[in-house]
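Let us practice reading a record.
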Amino acid sequence: MDRPVALATRGLTRQTTGLALLALVPVGFLVVFFAWPVLAIIGRGFTSGGVATAIASGETWKLAGFTLAQAAASTVLAVAAGLPVAFLLSRVRLPGLALVRVLVLVPFVLPTVVVGLAFKALWPDGGLASIVLANAFFNVAVVARTVAGLWSHLDSRAADAGRALGASPWRAFRSVTLPTLAPAIASAAAVVFLFCATSFGVVLILGGAKYRTLETEIYLRTVNLLDLSGAAALSLVQFAAVLAALLVGALARKRRETALKLRSGKDTARRPVGGEWWVVAAALAVVGFLLAPIIALLVRSVSTVDGWSFAGYTGLAGRGAQGALQVTGWQAASNSLRTASDATMLAMIIGVLASVVLVSLRRTPGRVARGMGEAMDAALMLPLGVSAVTVGFGYLVTLDALPGDLRTSPLLVPLAQALVIIPLIVRMVLPVLRSVDERLRQAAATLGASPSRVWREVDLPLTLRSLVAAAGFGYVVALGEFGATSFLARPESPTLPVAVATLIGRPGVLNNQMAYAACALLMIVTALAVAAIDRLGAVRGHTAVGEF
């Protein structure tokens, strides 16, 4: 064998070995902290006989029917509200759109407990309508960002030609634009349905005892009734529905990515004309809808039956009426900041490594490497589609087998939160890494730079802003995570969302005011973080929402 060929072969082998070692980190994390707990729950449902009992129970199908019905209604509402906003963000050039982008994205990253209390401030009695509206409120950003990402790249000349031939603006949209947008709309609808079907905090707060979904029933059976086999069976039923939604979403996303290749390559935004002003008005009405619960929550946090008061904010220095909390509100806030920091650091390590591996696999020739990349990318998204309550439940029944019994470790909550935000970080970092000109990497390698130095000298400077934005986005999501955290946080070290849920479950005016005050603080922190991320410019191009 010639020496150059031997050196090239040796270099390729070394690169493949290094890539495999890098891939072991994110894949190993997913296996231990996601696949194992979820499969354990599924196995428990089968071995205990609970699956057969649950499937034969009319109560299970009633819960499943309500879960799917409220998710479907919320999805329809979110799509209907999100399309005008997508038009505003993608096709319109008006002052103030930067603020609109922030206002639309804030609800998506608000803690579920905050959204639940915000809608409770508007509709104190809760009920089905408030659940549907709250879930739609959460997910308008998914529709608006996903559809706008494709709409902004469509060539408008086809629709213009239809209108020149006598078609009305509505007919041109229905016949030309809408079919082209269909993949993005389907992709967004599948993700929204997924989020609504696994909605936890919103249903728990607004549904009360009357309205329950599979997600809240799993929680109640585990925590209140200690019915582990029944909860495991319900988790399996829910997992089947979630898997179906994930498959639909994956197919729709592939179609959307294909459609994106037909981009016009130019800025198509302009001032609205004629009937387009009605669409802009509808979009602004949706923004008003998004603002209403936020304003109601802020007002509710400083109002009592006796007038305006900051008693809820000052009460955070204590433990609430009749010792509702085992720690003060500020200690719970400190716990939230600490666990979110740990979760974000862990998620950034796993997410960035996974993104590097995916980019490398995409550059590697051959179907095997491409197939491995697609499989790994899909696996990294799975935690978003599986109930956080199911994952938390799985931790309780599996992690005692690891050295040191992680169930009592302070790392347990950060591990669960990291699992939730890793997919979001990958979706933000991966497109930016893929956009780096491969010739720059090749030039550095030709000059003798090692793969690690190529990453440090080429990739890192070009992706630094995106990495900072991803870390900030992940931190905000971890700060408000409630589903798995409510299972895993110990009473003596609750996070702020868990403390809020405890406060609203206890009687007393002070407890109620403290809950609203804590939610207002979480909301303000979230809004400031989203605004900062938008200024970095990462939200505009490749966001966790936009990449779904």
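A brief commentary: The two ends are 47 Å apart (CA to CA).
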